[in-house]
Amino acid sequence: MSALRLCLSAIIGLALIHSGRARASAEPESIIVEGQRLHSQVGDFVEKLTAQVKDDQLGRFVEEICPSVSGLPNDLAQDIMGRIRRVTTAVGARVAKAKCRPNLVLLVVHDKQTAIRQLRAGYPQIFGDMRTADIHKLVETPGPTVAWQSSSRLGSDGMPLSMVRVNPEDGSNESVPLVRGAFLSRTNMQIIQHFALSLVVVEARALDQVDTRQLADYAVMRTLAATPAAADLPAPSILSLFKPGVSPLEAPESVTWWDYAFLKALYRSSNRLEASAQRSQVRQMMNQELEQIPTEQHQ
To answer: Reduced to 3 states, what is the DSSP secondary structure of residue 67?
Structure first.
C-alpha cells in the first residue's frame, strides 16, 4: 500500500453513482429490512465510540486543526501529516495552514508508559486539568496505543469562562465554569467543550507491516473524537488496526465508510447540545450519510 490513489471526495462521488443503480433494482421489502438493520448498527456504533463520554458534551475541535508527527523519519512524518490534513478536511473539520501551532499530535515512542511519565514531568500542561488518577490510567492502559484530549470550555459566544475553584472530598483541586446569566437546557447549552490539544501515542513495536495511510487514519479517528482504542464495533473501522488478534494486513487500509460518516456527522452536529441529544443528532446524520452508499460497501 502507498499513497492514496483517489481523493476521498472522488471515491464518494463514484459511490453515489453506483448507489443510485443499486437502489433502482432493489425490492422495497429488502430496502426496509436493510434500513432497519442499518439504523440499529449505527446506533450501536455511535454508542460504543462515545461511551467514554458520560455527560456534558461530545468533545471536538472548534479551532483550526494543526497536525504534528514526532518519532518518525521526516519523510514519513510529512506523508502522514499530509494524509491527516486531507481526511480531516474531507470530514468537514477546519484545518490550519502550514507553520501553525500543533494541536493534534501523533507520537511514536519506544514505550508509552515511559513516554507518558516523561511528558508529565516535562510538559504537564498537555494533560490540561486531567486528574492524577486519570493520568495513571493512561499509563496503565493495555496495548500499544493510548490517546487523550486536553479540553477547555468556552461560552456560547466563544469567550473564555470564569472559573471557580472547588475542593472535592477526594482531595483533588478542581475548577468549574461560572457562566453569568446562563440558562442551560438540552437544546441551548451555554458552554461549549472543545479540544485544545489531542494526542495519540503509538509504540514503534506495533508498526510492523502498518502502512503510513493506516497510521494516519488511525490517528485521525483517535484525535478528532474521544474514541476508545479497541471497541467491539458492529461495523468495519480503522480503529481495529491495533486490536489484539488483528494483523495490519487484516485491518482496513484506511478510514472506512463508517468512520467517515461518524466523523462527518460529529463535526456537523451542534456542539451546544447535551451529550445524549448530540448522539441522537450524530446517529441521524450518520444514517443519512450511509444510505447514500451501496449496501455491499457497508461491510
So the answer is: strand
Give tens-digit pLDDT for 62-87. 999 999 999 999 999 999 999 999 99
Interval 162-215: pLDDT, tens: 444 445 555 555 555 544 444 444 455 567 778 999 999 999 999 999 999 999
Give a yes or no: residue 277 inside a domain.
yes
Within-domain flag for 149: yes
Instruction: Output the domain CATH number for residue 146.
Output: 3.40.390.10
Model confidence, pTM: 0.79
The amino acid that residue 251 corresponds to is: A
β-pairing, 67-70 vs 104-109, is parallel
In a domain, 281, yes or no: yes
> Cα dihedral sign for 95, 97, 98, 102?
negative
Domains in the chain, number: 1
Q: b/e string for 74-90 if b means 16 or more Cβ within 10 A?
A: eeebebbbebbbbbbeb
Helix-helix angle 74-90:212-223, to 10 degrees: 50
Distance between CA atoms of 63 and 59, rounded to whole angstroms?
12
